[in-house]
Amino acid sequence: MTFKKLQALLEKDGETLSEEVWNVIRLSMGGNPRKTKRFANSFYLSGCFLNHPNQDLQEKVQNGSLSRISQERQSFYLAKILAFQMSFPDFYQHLRHHPGDWRYLEEEVILQKDATKREQTLKGTVKLSEFWADASFRDFMSKTSKSTSQNNPPAPSYDIVEALLDATSLVTETPS
Hints:
About 70% of the residues lie in helices and about 0% in strands. It is an all-alpha fold. It starts with a helix and ends in an 8-residue tail after the last helix.
């Protein structure tokens, strides 16, 4: 099955996802139809929870930065969080304790033009250095960051990451 056919099957009730979200799916799921379908189901479930939050999440959504960003940007961030959860689970778990590290990684490593400064930054953060050593993670982050596509929004603030992590924590991933 081609990716375009899979895309047509997964878009529900005429609701379409942005090209940036499909790019995240394409890069993180590696063309695996089952993983892609599981991703899409998790995406829609998490999106429903964000649109109809429980009391704790509702407070974060209303009082936090999540309420001030567009639906398109929220969908992009949600897609990346789910990609972390399904394809890079160690980084996803790391974000649960350090939600600001996504932004730090993009701003201080990916967007850093000076290779020497980039290496110094990574040496100072052992855990992020370990994630960055994974070629597939590095490739995914580089291709889905603001530095490579002006369509992709910059990394979210820690409070947005926290709200998205709360929404995705409802979706449990089973090993493939």
